[in-house]
Write a structure and sequence with these properties.
UDP-n-acetylglucosamine1-carboxyvinyl-transferase, Chain
């Protein structure tokens, strides 16, 4: 299904209760599965990714798991199943998932004692796994490909015979997600020592924890975008100022648009636009790659030239996000440039566009949600395949309507 989107007729003034964090939820579910006596987690995000994880964990006898397009589930479940004695299972996904590399994680698990075969092309899903207790030990892994490989290994490390000493080679991407994993492990009693280039996890047993799942800062980023583009007043609920989520950096990065924010006594976050934008935005987004699309669309529409680095892993997401951004922004008249497979920049030039374009989403939830606010500048903007938002934010379109947007089937 496709949607045409029209902006509110009046100034936006709305309050949004954000969905729970997908990243924290997925980690909580894996840690629950590894924690003896841990009850089912009381509240996690309601979205495709967590539904897949919950379904996979619900039946300990299933010999096949289809994770669809859930990359996090593929990485985390691969490690969990490899470390589950007597579990024999094949993990598969969509055609795009079969194109997303998993070789570095499989190689690392094999070196720790895992029994994993490729059921298709070498280096890619599907995977045939025969679970066993892993011996663990010391290994090195390239930190520049995916922090999810590292998080997957760390979470199963306490159940390894020798624990795990992990050396991180190269530039580490999305480090806040690794820090999130380590923090949640420590809350459950894991003994974890970290340095900038290594992590040591002692063998041991997790203990139940009662942490609650906070709201999702990635989802919040689209409301920062809407507030910046509309000069409206938006209140967000469920976020925490001391969040472990790297995407909380959106609050600081969006200051270039003139957008400020204030925490209220009841815990709500109020977004406050000002008429004082910056001249340009230069940022290393290696720790927060999931907000690159939001920032790129916002800066283009507000005529703020930008240069974003640290984005090499966007090539292997739900789609090639760098190329998808370039293709769809060009439809809107903005010729952005990709450099060295890890940098995107825009120098402020724009070509004339005479009608609102149709934006392709490439099976990527973040493409749909980052581009939808552009309807504020291009009424009637069309977003194709709108169902993709269910991967992380199923209520996104309903929340847009609540904020005053008109949404019609195209």
């Amino acid at each position: 299904m496709n949607y045409k989107i029209y902006p509110p007729e009046e100034l936006i003034e709305t309050e949004i209760t954000l969905p729970l964090s997908k990243s924290i939820s997925n980690r909580a579910l894996i840690l629950d599965a590894l924690t003896p006596g841990s009850p089912a987690h009381p509240a996690v995000a309601k979205c495709d990714d967590t539904d897949v994880m919950i379904g996979a964990l619900a039946d300990p006898t299933a010999d096949r798991i289809d994770i669809g397009a859930a990359g996090t589930a593929m990485r985390f479940l691969t490690a969990l199943m490899a470390a589950t004695p007597e579990r024999t299972v094949t993990i598969d996904g969509t055609e795009r998932m079969r194109q997303r590399p998993i070789g570095p994680l499989v190689d690392a698990l094999r070196s720790l004692g895992a029994d994993i075969d490729y059921a298709g092309e070498e280096g890619f899903p599907p995977l045939a796994i025969r679970g066993r207790r892993l011996h663990g030990g010391a290994i090195a892994i390239d930190g520049s490909v995916s922090s999810q490989y590292i998080s997957a290994l760390l979470m199963i490390a306490p159940v390894m015979e020798q624990g795990l000493t992990l050396t991180l080679e190269g530039d580490v991407t999305s480090r806040p997600y690794i820090d999130m994993t380590v923090g949640m492990m420590r809350e459950r009693g894991a003994e974890v020592d970290t340095t900038p280039t290594s992590v040591r996890v002692a063998p041991g047993t997790y203990t139940p924890a009662s942490e609650s799942v906070e709201a999702d800062w990635s989802a919040a980023s689209y409301w920062f975008e809407i507030a910046a583009l509309s000069s409206g007043f938006i209140t967000l609920r469920g976020l925490r100022p001391d969040s472990r989520q790297g995407d909380a950096g959106i609050a600081r990065l969006m200051e270039v648009t003139g957008l400020t924010h204030e925490w209220q006594e009841d815990g709500a976050l109020e977004l406050l636009p000002t008429p004082d934008p910056g001249a340009r935005l230069i940022a290393d987004l290696s720790g927060t790659p999931d907000i690159a699309q939001t920032l790129a669309v916002t800066c283009c529409l507000l005529s703020i030239p930008f240069r974003f680095g640290g984005l090499g892993n966007l090539r292997i997401k739900e789609t090639d996000r760098l190329q998808a951004l370039a293709d769809e922004l060009l439809k809107m008249g903005y010729p952005i440039v990709i450099e060295d497979d890890s940098v995107i920049f825009w120098d402020g030039r724009r070509y004339p566009v005479y009608e609102a374009p149709a934006v392709d989403t490439y099976c990527d939830h973040r493409m749909a949600m980052a581009f939808a606010p552009a309807a504020l500048y291009m009424p009637g903007l069309q977003i194709n395949d709108i169902e993709v938002v269910t991967k992380s934010y199923p209520g996104f379109w309903d929340d847009l309507r609540h904020a005053g947007f008109t949404i019609e089937e195209a």
